[in-house]
Amino acid sequence: MSFRCEHLSKSFAMRDGFVQALDDVTFSVGEREFVSIVGPSGCGKTTLLKLIAGLLRPSAGSVVPSAAPDDGRPASALVFQEHGLFPWMTVLENVAFGLETRGVGRSERHERAMTFISSVGLAPFAHAWPHQLSVGMRQRVGIGRAFVTDPRLLLLDEPLGSLDAQTRFLLQEELLRLWTRSRSAVVYVTHDIEEAVVLGDRVLVLTGRPGRIQGEITVPLGRPRKLEYAVDEKVTALKWQIWKMLEEEARRSLALSTREPVSSVEEPVP
Amino acid sequence: MSGGNARPRRGAGAWPAFLVIAVLLGLWETWARTSDSASILFPAPSVIAAVLVRELRSGALVRTVGATLGRLASGLALGGVPALLLGLTMGFSPRVRAAVDPLVAAAHAIPKIAVLPILMILLGLGEAPKIAVVAAAAFFPLLISTMSGVRHISPIHFEVAHGYGASAPRVFWRVLVPGSLPQILSGVRLAFNAALLITIALEIVAARTGLGATIWLAWQTMRVEELYASLAVTSFLGVGFNAILAFAGRRLVPWHSTPEI
Predict the structure, then answer these.
(1) Does residue A130 lie within any of the structural domains?
(2) How many angstroms separate the first and last alpha carbons of chain A?
(3) ipTM of model
(4) CA angle B195-B200-B204, nearest 5°?
(5) CA distance B233 to B51
(6) How distant is the Cα of B44 from the closest Cα of chain A, in angstroms?
(7) Which residues of chain A are within 8 Å of residue B159 when distances are taken between CB atoms?
(8) What pLDDT score was predicted for residue B4?
(9) Residue B3 pLDDT
């Protein structure tokens, strides 16, 4: 097991009282497992990742890391949705930053970062500034910075959320490739149901205000995954099943009535 | 990728400005040489240039500029370093900011030259009160720019640094300083310009050396061409320093697609 969350709750003090972001969240992630967390915006997904990363303290409950041997690997590395790169560092320095904070010497960390950069084909951009890159390239650098530290747990907060569909598709594939050759477990937060299913071994469905785990689905697809799975009927069925868990809340947040059918499309049998 | 595409073509930008200056100087020269009344208050550029050459040869110019630059540099260092440190602290800590901000706002509004008499009583008639006034003039612009520079760093950058377990000194040197550097540099420019103004002003009021004193003496003795010579030197100092800062900015902040200074 990589780590587990036990009865995790988090509330924030606001001007007019408390807002509960997460309520009694319990789950565990295995070694090298890929867990997707899907939920509507504002359901506390980012809060959950920050709690796991140790950037926030839980109001109740705890995050229990695995009793891992002390081999110098960082417990976790976090990838943000965007703007995660330091604009004042080159691509190389950004990728090496996770090693820099762990006290890896300059020449060694640059060598390791450069190896990674070359392996994903970004070598011509190693000395470019982030503002000179496309959004998709920046995100690849951000993901690379996390992978290069060889963390036990990789936490990704909607890393492909701001990309166009084509770019996202290609980067999903790259992410799976990187994860396969790494030793890290992944917690992947997204609001895209299909993405959650296609990438994950398991999908946790989170509903919002306060965030609770509404359901957990094991994805019955093999590895290595191909993105052709996106059109697999098993995936379509799972997508529908997850949508049903999220539908009521999604409608409520838009103040849409749940009674009126939108169309006469029949519900596919899962 | 070198990113040279975003930089404006500098040659194209500089020539029209030189042309405008040359044409204006030419008109001025002609006017001053053809009109007696004009030459009294507006001596020809060639006459002013001759004064500059004479003062340069006699060493008077170097002494005068040296006195002004000495006050300017001491004041900038004395006011700038605390401004930088306090600005970084105020930008980083909301508590310190809340405690000091009202005081800064109140003190910033006081014309610094007005404190000179009090400082002269406290610190004597020598260089000390003058340098203190220059320091005060340089202090506030740099403080405010530095503070706002730190506050404009996206919280995500701090979260990333903490997420990767960065120590406090590393956060300082790798996030806080580079993140606020563009605004610190424009703060240095504001501080220099404020300090130059106040140095000239206090030399007019209370010094026997320096450009301000020379300007005032020239005016009182009606040596108008010497007054203009000093003004030209002052203007040159400002242009020169701003050019140096722009160059330093391109070197120190290479990640900015469009330098702010």
Answers:
(1) yes
(2) 30
(3) 0.84
(4) 145
(5) 11
(6) 49
(7) 50, 55, 78, 80
(8) 42
(9) 41
Evaluate if residue A117 carries a pLDDT over 70: yes
Instruction: Give kind and range of the element (H or E) at residue A196.
Output: helix A193-199
Type of residue numbered A95 = V
Report residue A198 as tokens: 């296609």
Is B5 an interface residue toward A (CB < 8 Å)? no
Nearest residue in B to A151, CA atom = B164
Cα separations (Å) of A9 from A43, A191, B64, B159? 13, 21, 70, 21
Helix B224-252 to helix B60-92 angle (10° resolution) is 40
For residues A113 and A122, what is the distance between their CA atoms, to the nearest angstrom?
11
- Structurally, chain A folds into a number of domains equal to 1
Two structure tokens written together for B198: 């106040």
Is-contact A206 A212, C-beta < 8 A?
A: yes
All structural domains of chain B with their residue ranges: 10-35+45-58, 59-252
Looking at the structure, give the CATH architecture of the domain made up of residues B59-252: Orthogonal Bundle (1.10)
Structural domain boundaries enclosing A61:
3-254
C-alpha torsion B94→B98→B101→B103, nearest 10: -150
Which residues are CB-contacts of B162 (< 8 A; sequence separation ≥ 6)? A55, B171
**A126 in a domain, yes or no?**
yes
SS3 B76: helix
Cα distance between residue B210 and residue B72, in whole Å: 10
